[in-house]
Amino acid sequence: ALVSATEMLKKARAGHYAVGAFNINNMEWTKAILLAAEEAKSPVMLGVSEGAGKYMCGFKTVTAMVKEIHDYLGITVPVALHLDHGSYDGAKACIEAGFTSVMFDGSHYDFEENMEKSKEIIEFAHARGISVECEVGGIGGEEDGVTSMGEVADPNECEKIAALGVDFLAAGIGNIHGKYPANWAGLNFDVLGKIQEVTNGLPLVLHGGSGIPADQIAKAISLGVSKINVNTELQLEFAAATRKYIEAGKDNEGKGYDPRKLLAPGAEAIKAKVIAMMTEFGSKDKA
Ligand code: G3H
Ligand code: ZN
Q: The domain 6-281 is classified under which CATH number: 1.10.10.10, 3.30.572.10, 3.30.450.20, 3.20.20.70?
């Protein structure tokens, strides 16, 4: 069965490694990531954005699909199905649809409202055994061709959200969704260190996990990061492998246009990348 993420992230925090939260888009992504986790003997989180939830015909469809694929493949490692960057209503809908973990991202509200809504979601989720992630500060990202740097989290605010009983906390520390620009200053380890000091062993979450150099990943883990979100990296891998297959004309050979053949190189590339990242994050052989 799918599990809440609380235990796996507590273990990761204590064991000084991080669990990857990989975003899914469809059956191929789900299958590839689950097979990678099983092969690497690693715990894993499957992230679902609200947009991806709509794309997959709703959170109930996602839950049913993930549960069935999980059971069909005989997956034995711990797997959490997690809402990524959820709204207040989205978080409640996912809990009702059978997700085992949710992120309520109230970082765009003023802090008092973020606190209030986070508190409500934590109560609602914990009454049902579901883990919760909240966010303080902002993660940068590209919008209309312009990359914003995000808002570095205030450690005092992190302390207050931690005191609500949240299970793990995402904080803006100079991380960015999507590709990192050439002039990126790197992660803000001073702030991460301060957040770690005031959050009393709480597992911390690093968003924008695609394209961060290995030494910065290692340092972030040493300062309490126990969950790393990865989305763009797998999209790039899938696109490159699919493009290679098509440009080599493989889709014209035999029945290479069969979708099961056409999508296979991309799925294999996702699986290989996930295993590589689990190795880098230290979660390999921790299941
Ligand atoms: O919430 C999702 C992640 O933070 C993914 O970021 O696309 O830069 O890997 P990424
Ligand atoms: Zn994110």
A: 3.20.20.70
**CA distance linking residue 256 with residue 27, whole number of Å:** 20
- Counting ligand 1 atoms within 8 A of each CB, the residue from 85, 205, 225, 231 with the most, and so the one to mutate, is 231
Q: By alpha-carbon position, which residue is closest to atom 2 of ligand 1?
A: 229
- Reply yes or no on whether 84 is catalytic: yes
Q: Which two tokens stand for residue 82?
A: 């997690």
Dihedral angle over CA of 82, 58, 34, 47, nearest 10: -30
What is the pTM assigned to this prediction? 0.98
Residue 23 CA, ligand 1 centroid: distance in Å:
8
Distance 229 CA to ligand 1 centre (A): 5
pLDDT at position 143 over 80: no
Per-residue pLDDT tens digits for 8-46: 999 999 999 999 999 999 999 999 999 999 999 999 999
Q: What is the mean pLDDT of the chain?
A: 97
Give residue limits of the domains in the chain.
Answer: 6-281
85 lines ligand 1 (CB under 6 A): yes
pLDDT digits (tens, 9 = 90+) for 79-127: 999 999 999 999 999 999 999 999 999 999 999 999 999 999 999 999 9
